Every structure is written in structure tokens, then in C-alpha cells.
Amino acid sequence: MGVLRSRSWLWVWVLWLGFAPVQAKTLEIGIFQRFGEHQDEATIQSTGPLKITLDQNQTLSAPTVAIQTARIPLAQPIPWSRVVVSAHRSFEDAQVVADGLKPWNIEPLLARPQRWQVWALRRSSPPTVDQEALVGRLHTAGYSTARLESGLQTDEMLLDLTIDGTHYQTREVTIQAPQNRLQFGARRYGGTLRLSPNAYGTYSVINRIDLETYLRGVVPYEIAPKAPYEAIKAQAIVARTFALKNLNRFRLDGYDLCATANCQVYQGLGGVTPLTDRAVQTTRQQVLTYQGKLVDALYTSANGGLSARYSDLWGGEDRPYLRPRLDRIQPLSLIGLSQEQGLQRFFQNRTNFNETGSPAFRWTRTYSAASLLASLTKNLPTLGLFVPLKAVTGLRVLERSDSGRVLRLGIQTDQGEITLSKDSILSAIERLPSTLFYIELEAAGSFRLIGGGWGHGLGLSQYGSYGLARRGWDYRRILNFYFPATRLMQHG
Positive or negative CA dihedral for 73, 79, 80, 83? Predict the structure, then answer.
């Protein structure tokens, strides 16, 4: 969930100068993950001279640098090949598969060309016998979508820089500004910037920044700056814990975290506010722990009135502090939510929830057979499912958890019934806010999905935290409500 707020240059500089820097862990954030994919270009500038280092050996100084990319043909094409074990919507599911391969004496790689993928035996060569054998072993072990990919690299992408009217081509560049304040395109950042090649033939733009300054660029975009102050403090602690828990998600591309909702929304320091800055500084270095270890500090826009269990969405072990819990102070029966009628009765209750009145609390989505077919045709291949569909004829819930989430969804098609599980449901069906829904068939052959919540439904509900803060709860009590049996500790 991101909330955009524009600020004038003057106001941003005042906030920067008035915020005391904190010595904290340094993060590397991929603020532009595929620079050069669409003939991208950008200008980097600052109020003083930039220190520009090319390929780690030539240093220049200038107030601005214009960056484009250029493709240079290779004298000799380079073959490549890799085994794609599986594809996933979430990092969490990809990590479970990767961990399961380690006893096979395989070092898996986690990649994100579109969806998350697990790669193995990545080579600069045509397909080999051991790669083909691995695909066979994977199919036998139940990894039905495993496949061998290969191709030829015929060119190389280089950075094309313009500095003081002179062109330079380089494979990597690092840019540092006075007082670590610079502008990349329309956004303003602290720290330094580095552009380096990634695993997809393009460039990653990486912002190197300390943890607490990074949080200044996360909190205003992940929670409304006008939210209750105690809710903002809770968000700051959860965001800090999430960042530290999830370092090296993008190790393959040379950075820690992305800057989108696939990690946490981070848009630099152009949207900082006094209130969100104060929340970051007041909670400085506080993290959420369970039995002395960082928790999976997950959060969602809204949970629909009932939080989910970890295994309702993803594989792997359940977390004791992430479990179904009524997001409501007054008691309400949760018996029978794994059945359609029980969930429908639950949805009839709309008052006295902490999220009541939020736009994400309850929702309805209607899909025609044609629109559902289009969505599946587009998205199933990103999950490794290549099915030549021509018609969708039915939709039904095959299994539901005790938190009401759909665990298995059956889709009747001209190619037979396709079963989607947990988080992959959200990948395959566009515009679907969560897996907390039931289905009504309409006379015109359309499918009406009635549901609640926005996102995975795990951990902190942002809209729910607003409701609790308005009841007078402080951030410690809010965090204990959404992450029971956890403790706050100082990091660093």
C-alpha cells in the first residue's frame, strides 16, 4: 500500500537538514530494477559536484550526469542455459522450494524476471546432459513445471553517460553527492547510487543508504502520513523489522531489497513529513522479535476482519505469532469459516471491526467467462503453467482454511479442471484483492466474487491499526495485538 505525497524542494531540504543522521546498518535498495529495458534514460544531479566513478577505476566530477544505455553486438554469441525449477508470486514460496533443493547438492538461485523463479545449474553453455537429467529428476519428484531454458546472447548492454558534454561508455558506475543528497529523475534520495548489470541483460539502479534513512522513505508511502501517530510508529517498527529480516532477497542482482510493494514501497525522501520522521526517530532501532529472533514482520492493507495463518498463503512452517485472529474488540463466533455458509454469515457482520469503514474491508469483483479466460491466458505462463485454454466454464472453491481463505480453487476449462493453490490464485486472477472470498454464479454466466481484505491478510492490518489507535491504543499494544507473544528489542 503506497500513499504518494509531493513536497517542494525547500521543504525537503529543511527536513533533511533538521533530521539527525543515525549510524545504522547500510542497505542496498534496487530503486530501478530493469533500467534499459525500455530505452530508459535519466539525469542524476545534486546541489554540488557529483563524484562519478566508472568501472571502479576512473573518477570524474560534474554537477549532473545523463545516463542512457547502448547495446553493443558481441563478436561471438554466448550461449546460455538454466533449469527453471518453479515460478511463484511470492518470495516466501520460492524460498521454500529453494530450501528443498539443498539436500540434492544443488545451489539454487532466486530470480525475479517477472514472477519469482527458482533457478538451478545456470551455465554459459548450451543445455548439458546434467541439466536435462535434473529436469527429469524434478518431474519425478513432483516439480511438474520444471523446464530447461536456453538461448544465445548476441549483444551486451553498456551504460552511455554524458558528463560535461563528453560521452563515456562503462559497465558500471557509482555516483556520490555532497552530503549524500541527490536526485535521480524526478525523485530525491539520500546515500549513493550505483548502476550495475543484472541477471536479465539490463541494469539495476541501486541506492546505498543507512537503515534509518531508508525508513524515512518507506513509512510515508506504506501508511498514510495523516494516520494516527501510534499507528505510524507501529508501521515504522514493522518496516524496520521486515527490512532486516529480508536482506539479500535480490542477492542475484547485487542488492538487498526492491523499492516496490514486492518488498516495501520506497520512493526516496521526496515525501518525508514531520510526523513520519518523528515516528521513525522515536522508535529508532526498535525491532519485533520472537524468542530472541526477528519475526516475519508481515503487514497488509486490510485483512477483512480476520487475520490469516502463514500456511493459508504460503508453504513452509507456520509462525506461532501469525495466526487467525478476529480483528475486532467485541467477540464473534468464528466457527465454520472453512465452509461457504459460515463465511457468508461472517461477511454479514460489518460493524465494530477495527477496519470498518475502510475501502478495503469488503469488496465485490465480477468476472465474465471471457475476462477470466483472458486473465488466465496472460498469467498462467508466468507460473510455469502452459495450457492452451479456449474457454472457462466454471469456478468453485475446493478447499478453505479455518480463517476463511481459499486454499484450492478449481477452474473448469475446455482443457479440464485447473487447480490453483493459495497465493497463486492472486497471480492468476487479475484484480482479485485477497483469497478471502466466496463465489456467486450470475445468470449471464459471470462469476461474482464477494470478499474482504486487501493483500495476504497476515500480521499487521494497516487499516486495523488506525482503528486501534483511535481507541487510544499505543504502538506497543497494537503490535502485541497483531503479533502476539512477540517482544520489542533494540537492534544494533
Answer: positive
CA distance 429 to 441: 16
Q: What is the dihedral of CA 175, 177, 181, 186, to 10 degrees?
A: -50
Report yes or no: 316 and 411 within 8 Å, Cβ to Cβ: no
Question: How many other β-carbons are positioned within 10 Å of the β-carbon of residue 378?
Answer: 11
Beta bridge pairs of residue 300: 461
CA atoms within a 13 Å half-sphere pointing along the CA-CB vector of 453 = 28
Extract the C-alpha cell encoding 85.
525449477
Alpha-carbon torsion (462, 466, 471, 475), positive or negative: positive
The residue among 459, 423, 89, 456 whose CA lies nearest residue 294 is: 459
Q: Distance (Å, rounded) from C-alpha 412 to C-alpha 487?
A: 47
CA distance 464 to 453: 11
Query: Is residue 402 packed enough to be buried (19+ CB in 10 Å), middle (13-18) or exposed (0-12)?
Result: middle
Gap between the terminal Cα atoms of the chain: 28
Render pLDDT for 52-83 as a digit per residue (tens, 0 to 9): 999 978 999 999 999 999 999 999 999 999 99
CA–CA distance, 363 with 454 (Å, rounded to integer): 9
The C-alpha cell at 344 is: 457468508
How many Å apart are CA 222 and CA 49, to the nearest integer?
33
- Pairwise CA distance, residues 127 & 152, whole Å: 11
Burial status of residue 388 (CB atoms within 10 A of its CB: 0-12, 13-18, 19 or more): exposed
- CA distance readout (Å), 411 to 6, 54, 418, 420, 481: 43, 53, 5, 8, 37
CA pair distance 292, 313, nearest whole angstrom: 25
Cα angle for residues 261, 457, 446 (degrees, 5° grid): 90
Three cell numbers, residue 256:
538487498
pLDDT in tens, 253-312: 999 999 999 999 999 999 999 999 999 999 999 999 999 999 999 999 999 999 999 999
The helix-helix angle for 229-245 and 274-282 (nearest 10°) equals 60
For residue range 198-247, what is the model confidence (pLDDT) as tens digits?
999 999 999 999 999 999 999 999 998 889 999 999 999 999 999 999 99
Closest listed residue to residue 389, CA positions, set 421, 442, 428, 424: 428
Provide the grid cell at 371. Answer: 475476462
